[in-house]
UniProtKB/TrEMBL annotation:
Protein name: Response regulator transcription factor
GO biological process: phosphorelay signal transduction system; regulation of DNA-templated transcription
CDD domains xref list: LuxR_C_like, REC_NarL-like
Location of the HTH luxR-type domain: 146-211
Gene Ontology MF terms: DNA binding
Entry annotated with the keyword Transcription: yes
Residue ranges constituting the Response regulatory domain according to the UniProt record: 3-119
Length: 215
């Protein structure tokens, strides 16, 4: 039996995924968690074979939790299960150590296939994610890793990081980009997770070292 831990801050989604997993032969639910911090504790206690990990959660996000789990528990495979399908999020998850990437709209058969694949040591994408990744590379990879700093950031995240590096606070960034402050806070949180930066100041320092925020 393959044991699976489900990590997502939405209770209804967790309940639905637990039901899906319970219907799949050869798969046993190890437990559930609502935050990255809870996920770390649950992995330590339960030692699941696979973790289904959401990316955006309160507190420690899914990227940071993925990095810590794969570092501390190499026998546990992390599969990201999220709404984010942009290549930047996919590459950031892979850099953090994820072995699979699925969209939340995926059906039970895709969930089964990815779980079985990562337990065999494969890196597995859901079909829609795989299509995006192939298209990204086929197009030369806009902002490919060899030519641009932080290629795993989305265009909007790079805009926000640039303004952060120029010294703007969230309210000023929101006005400049015509966004709500809540949206900016979410983008900043995503940026810190993708850069694996512990603080805003650390993210800004890394951006400036890479030439972002100059001019």
């Amino acid at each position: 039996m393959t044991t699976v831990l489900v990590v997502d801050d939405h209770e209804l989604f967790r309940a639905g995924m637990l039901a899906v997993l319970g219907s799949l032969p050869g798969i046993e639910v190890a437990g559930e968690a609502a935050t990255g911090e809870e996920a770390l504790d649950a992995v330590t206690r339960l030692q699941p074979d696979v973790v289904l990990m959401d990316l955006r959660m309160p507190g420690m996000g899914g990227l940071a939790a993925t990095g810590r789990i794969t570092e501390r528990h190499p026998g546990t495979k992390v599969v990201v299960l999220t709404m984010n399908e942009d290549p930047g999020s996919v590459f950031a998850a892979l850099r953090a150590g994820a072995r699979g990437y699925l969209l939340k709209e995926s059906g039970a058969e895709d969930v089964r296939r990815v779980i079985e694949g990562v337990t065999r040591g494969e890196a597995v994408f859901g079909p829609k994610v795989a299509e995006h990744v192939v298209r990204f590379f086929a197009g030369g990879g806009a902002g490919a890793p060899a030519t641009a700093p932080f290629p795993h950031l989305t265009t909007r995240e790079r805009e926000v990081l640039d303004l952060m590096a120029r010294g703007l606070d969230n309210a000023s960034i929101a006005r400049r980009l015509f966004l709500s402050e809540k949206t900016v806070r979410n983008r900043v949180s995503d940026i810190l997770a993708k850069l694996q930066a512990g603080t805003r100041a650390e993210a800004v320092a890394r951006a400036r070292d890479a030439g972002i925020g100059e001019g």
